[in-house]
Each structure stands twice: as structure tokens, then as C-alpha cells.
Write a structure and sequence with these properties.
With 457 residues, the protein is α+β, with helices and mostly antiparallel strands. It contains 12 helices and 19 strands. The longest helix has 25 residues.
């Protein structure tokens, strides 16, 4: 049969060859995407991940963010996240690439890439790397497929269900879903950060220096700026990640670029160039001001810059700051969030005044409805493009919670296919039942069971 016979009109005058037919297509292979795909495939669905980079893991790998948290309630050892996302923490530790607790995992980025691909192979997930999502095929209010662009040209992947795990809501936006972006009133988004990894670290000396000082070492950066050794692009360290499997290395979350629209390639380019300058300038400051880092050097900057915020879809429910801080419970709970409202300054350095650090034990339930776009059927979203406010996103956007949403989207997609329903009509009781079967933590009973099991180990 000729190639022309496989072609069909997609949007406007463009054409794309039909390259695949799958049950569930996951666009984006980050924490939300892998959780969605693994859950779907384990239920027997023909599942595929389309990923723009050459690895799974998203910001954790391609973004160089070698630390994932929070699996536990805030400032508490009580674990409130299970399922695929916690399984990944255990797997990367077992493989010798990191170390995890009930709250977090620190890991070697390259090792995480390998572990995730091993899990994908075990579950029978089809992977397509080096491929960018381009457009959505929508017919009569239902999404039918996704157009991707890669070395082969434009291709149409037909799917019965599509899960948008792009982080930026790319699929939902192209499909015609309504969305919001940035801070209410101004549209300003949180700053972006290029993570980087340094070698030549004496962690014992570093920890001795940090003892008794504010965790963010704000006085150090203030002194460096006063002395003319550092431009005023940052006032606090956002994260230093260390794993005993690579004791002479440190992952750094410090660069800070504002005024960026993550849906524009020009902005991402400008941010990457500026952030890389900041990273190299930071190393010079570390050598001069931080004992234990006198001989540090750049090991790597990642494939992509870290994004905290862009599009948020308008879904069947809007999760708000009041829901989060009120620790609200939902009948359609799919799991828990527990991170503080972490908002980096949208227009300057340091943290935003909207940041809120809650009391120990803080946690709230995440409702399924925030994954369901109002307009388009057979499409779910998971990750930081879910339906929430700017301030609620400050807590919801972190990787374990992206994984919680992804796994629920994967399960709901398969259940809807089995039941012959669109995803918005799926039985919440059956969804929660399957999530529990997959060792997710959905309610208080699950929290008690998971932590009782930990006590026995």
C-alpha cells in the first residue's frame, strides 16, 4: 500500500502519515507521564509515551533536578504518597543510584534515566524519543490523535485516550481547551531555573560551614553582591542535593530568570543563555565564599531549563489556595499533596510574598476533576497544567504530586475504555479501588496502612 493511502487531513492544509494506533497516548515522559503510562500499561492497555528529549523523567533527568520530594506530610515522617512515584524512589535506591526516605529521594540523574527505561520495558510501554508534539486531531469535541514532528517528518498517532503530561498544557491548548496562565491579574509566571551539577565537593566541610546558619545562606549571597563578586540575580539557595553514591558531587538549584513565558521558544532560549551565565558565575562565588567548595567545578548543565509555571487548564474543578491551606478532603480524591505553597518571586529575586509554610502534618487531597478539561472529551491532563489557581500550583506542581495525578489519569483512561465512557464519566469508586490496588494512597485509611507497613520493616 502506498504512503498516500495512510495519509489523512489533520488541521488546515497539513497532512501527516498515521504512524501508530494505541489505546493510551501519553504526551510527555516526566514524573506525571511515566506514572500515567506505567499505570495504563499495567492494566493491559497498549500505551505509548512521546517525549521530546532522549530520556524519561522530565525535570528530574533532562532538567538535572536530582532530588524529588515530598512523599510525606509537611515536616513529618508520615508518608502520604505511594504508587508509581514512590516505587521509583525505591527502585533507584535498590539499583544503587541514590537514597530515599519516607519524604524524599536524592539520586544520580543518569542512573534515574536507566531505571525509568527499565521500568518502561518491564511494563511494555512503547517509547518515542526525539519527538515534539505539534497539533491535536479533534473531531466533534473528542480528541482522536496527536501530531508529532521528528526526523521522520509529521506523523499522526491515533489514540483512544490522550493524557497531556507536557507540563505546559500543550495538547490541551491545541485541542481547544480553555486555560489560564501565571499570576492572577498580571499573568506573570514564576521564574525559571537551570539546574547544574558540580564536582570537587568536600561535603563534610560544607555541612560544617552551614551548621547554625539560615538554610538558604542569604547572608553569603548578600556579602558576595556587596563585594561585587555576584550580580543580584538571586538572594537564597533553593536547593543543594547530595547523595552518598556520588559523595564529591552536588546538585544546585540557584539560578533565577524572571519575565519568561515558557510557551515561547524565544523566551526559553533567552532564559537558558542567561541562566548558564549565572551558573558559571555561581561557581566562582562558591569557590571564594563556601568552605568545602574551594575546588568545585562544573560537571554538567542539563538538556532543559526548569519550569515552574505556564498554562493551567480550566477543568471540572478549580483547586484553590483555600482548598490547599484548608487541607480539604474530596469525594473524588486521587491522592495527597503536602508541599508548602512554594512561589518564587515572579518579578524579582528570592521568594514571593505569597509563599506559605504550613504547620507540621499539613496535607490535602487532590480531586480527580482537576485532571478533566471542561470542553474536550477523551483527554486528561496531569502535572502542573492541571486545573488550579496560581497559588495552589505553588504546592501542587512538585514531582510526587505530578506522579499522583499522572497515575490517576492513566487508570481513569483505561477504566473509561473498559466501561465505554468518556473519562469525565468514569466511576470514582472504581477509580479509587484500582488506585488502591496499585498501592496509591487515596485516603486516611491508606495512610495508616502504608505507615504501619513501614513500621514493620
Amino acid at each position: 500500500m502506498s504512503k498516500q493511502a495512510f495519509k489523512e487531513s489533520v488541521s488546515g492544509n497539513s497532512e501527516a502519515a498515521v504512524s501508530k494506533n494505541v489505546d493510551v497516548l501519553v504526551v510527555g515522559g516526566g514524573p506525571a507521564g511515566v506514572s500515567a503510562a506505567f499505570a495504563s500499561a499495567r492494566m493491559g492497555a497498549k500505551t505509548m509515551i512521546v517525549e521530546q528529549f532522549n530520556c524519561l523523567g522530565g525535570v528530574a533527568t533532562a532538567g538535572g533536578h536530582g532530588h524529588i520530594c515530598l512523599y510525606s506530610a509537611w515536616s513529618s515522617p508520615e508518608r502520604v504518597v505511594g504508587g508509581v512515584t514512590f516505587e521509583i524512589a525505591k527502585r533507584v535506591t535498590k539499583a544503587g543510584f541514590g537514597i530515599h526516605t519516607n519524604s524524599s529521594v536524592d539520586f544520580e540523574v543518569e542512573g534515574m534515566k536507566l531505571v525509568l527505561e527499565q521500568m518502561a520495558e518491564e511494563d511494555g510501554v512503547d517509547l518515542l524519543y526525539h519527538s515534539f508534539f505539534s497539533d491535536a486531531l479533534v473531531e466533534d469535541g473528542e480528541i482522536k490523535g496527536a501530531i508529532v514532528q521528528n526526523k521522520n517528518g509529521r506523523q499522526l498517532i491515533r489514540a483512544k485516550r490522550i493524557i497531556d503530561c507536557t507540563g505546559d498544557g500543550d495538547v490541551a491548548a491545541r485541542a481547544g481547551c480553555d486555560f489560564e496562565q501565571g499570576e492572577e491579574g498580571t499573568g506573570a509566571c514564576q521564574p525559571v531555573t537551570l539546574m547544574f551539577t558540580i564536582g570537587g565537593v568536600d561535603i563534610k566541610k560544607v555541612n560544617e560551614f552551614r551548621a547554625g546558619k539560615p538554610w538558604n545562606l542569604s547572608e553569603v549571597w548578600a556579602e558576595a553582591q556587596k563585594n561585587g563578586d555576584m550580580r543580584p540575580f538571586q538572594s537564597v539557595v533553593m536547593g543543594w542535593w547530595w547523595t552518598p553514591t556520588r559523595p564529591d558531587q552536588l546538585g544546585i538549584n540557584f539560578t533565577h530568570v524572571t519575565g519568561i513565558d515558557a510557551t515561547k521558544a524565544e523566551d526559553l532560549t533567552r532564559a537558558t543563555i542567561e541562566a548558564r551565565k549565572q551558573a558559571y558565575e555561581t561557581i566562582e562565588v562558591y569557590r571564594k565564599y563556601i568552605p568545602g567548595l574551594e575546588n568545585c567545578f562544573m560537571l554538567s548543565t542539563p538538556n532543559t531549563i526548569g519550569l515552574r509555571e505556564s498554562r493551567r487548564i480550566v477543568g471540572e474543578y478549580l483547586l484553590t489556595k483555600e482548598d490547599v491551606l484548608g487541607m480539604k478532603n474530596f469525594d473524588d480524591s486521587i491522592g495527597y499533596g503536602s508541599f508548602f505553597i512554594d512561589i518564587h518571586n515572579c518579578s524579582g529575586i528570592g521568594m514571593d510574598k505569597k509563599t506559605v509554610r504550613p504547620d507540621p502534618g499539613f496535607k490535602y487531597q487532590i480531586p480527580y476533576r482537576i485532571l478533566v478539561p471542561k470542553k474536550i472529551d477523551n483527554l486528561l491532563v496531569a502535572g502542573r497544567c492541571a486545573s488550579c489557581t496560581h497559588e495552589a500550583l505553588g504546592s501542587l506542581r512538585v514531582m510526587p504530586q505530578c506522579g499522583v495525578m499522572g497515575q490517576a489519569a492513566g487508570v481513569a483512561s483505561v477504566l473509561s475504555l473498559r466501561e465505554g465512557l468518556v473519562p469525565r464519566q468514569v466511576s470514582i469508586m472504581e477509580l479509587q479501588k484500582e488506585l488502591k490496588r496499585q498501592e496509591c494512597i487515596v485516603d486516611e485509611g491508606d495512610i495508616q496502612s502504608a505507615n504501619a507497613a513501614n513500621m514493620k520493616q
